Amino acid sequence: MVLESHPEALNIFLTKHCNLDCHYCFVKKDSCKDKELDVEQLKKAVVFF
Question: In sequence order, what DSSP letters do the residues of the chain get, joined into one string?
């Protein structure tokens, strides 16, 4: 029996103007440094999901 894997969540960070310092944040501080999606990349991510 083969089970297909499907994503259960899509996290979209609308801004990179965050200090990522909230006690509940699951993102490592250095993992998002200087990275930003443009509109086309965002559309592709949503369609893919």
Answer: --PPP--------S-S------TT--S-GGGSTT----HHHHHHHHHH-
